[in-house]
Amino acid sequence: MTSLRRLIAFISSLKVAIFLLFIIAISSALGTAIPQGESTQSYLDAYQEHPWLGFINGESLIRFELDHVYSSNWFLGLLGWLAISLIICSWRRQIPILQSALRWIDYRKPQQISKFAIAETIQTTKTIEDINQLAEHLEKKGWKVKQSPGRLAARKGAIGRIGPPIIHLGLVLLLFGSAWGSLQGQRVERFLVPGRSFELLNKDGQNQLTLRLNNFQIERDPAGRTEQFRSNIEIIEPGQNEGQSKDASVNHPIRFRGITVYQADWSLIAITIQIGQSPELQLPLQSFPELGEQIWGLVLPTKKDGSDPVLISVSNEDGPVQIFDENGQLLGSLRPGSDSKEIKGIPIRIIKILPASGLLLKRDPGVPIVYTSFAITLVGGALSILATRQLWAIAETEKDLIYVGALSNRNLSGLANEIPQLIACISNK
Fold this sequence. Notes:
With 429 residues, the chain is an alpha+beta fold. The chain folds into three domains: 2-98, no CATH class; 112-157 and 387-422, TATA-Binding Protein (2-Layer Sandwich); 193-360, no CATH class. Helix content is 34%, strand content 34%.
């Protein structure tokens, strides 16, 4: 039994709670610094030869579940430990404090209140009448009064003592909502071209929604820099042929039945080209980060044997498309829809460049719980600001004296300034 009490005391210790918060904060920083949810091979490629921070290679990163920190067993264990700590702390400390605050304390002897931080002794010839008058005056001022023969107890703002347990409840709900969202949530990233669609499946492989990209538009400033990109998306529910059309843009996501669709990125996915008298060819583009940010292109041979290649590069869906030889010499520049141009003796015409919309889909069932926890925590914090004030008055008829004592858990000086006004109703003051 003693060991169990020690364990409970350890789990609910303030030092342990602070330590857990510190570890959770560091873990969250790791989850922010390290890309999450990528393929295993991508971590091996990125960190195996060049370890993160100089000592965490790809294998170690995966072994310690740093590729999915927020849904890892150890991170969820930390959240659970902190939640249990808060629950036990509320049970062992906050609830008893609340019960004590709501319980009326009946002091019967003047010596019991004369040593309070705020204490007054009043000479009067009508002690009982003045006690009754004080009780009426306090009730008019919003105090709750419990009166006994020759004495009274009064309090105001006792509801503020409910604040700390409510804050603990909000924090526990926050931890639960975060864990629930990590375990049951979904995150999907897709690049779609207009006219294409994909199905969002649940963990059982059943279709939840079908998203079809109707239109994708990139808005640019006069210098050609990207200002905004927008997607018109048709959301089709299972069993239906038509759905609802909604627009998504940067900072303006689509929200639909617990699923949020973000306009996260854009890309150039393919180029339609005609070489000589060939039919129109749609060729895939790939990113060339070594050439610069947002540069796409493809290597195209100009000979039948695959030799003498040229590099076709583009950074804008409106062009220009630049063509370089294998030595990096610029051979020509073309615009989509313009006339063909002879490159190394071969007529080349750019018909169009196909952009793709980068969509990020998130489904987090823990979000309502998290938002509810924020509201509960704010209410608890607001209540905790309220000062709980208590006042006692005891009449000593034989000596014609009334003893007044008062306490407050906050702003004791404010209560000390208010006491003269509260007891001014007593005669012969």
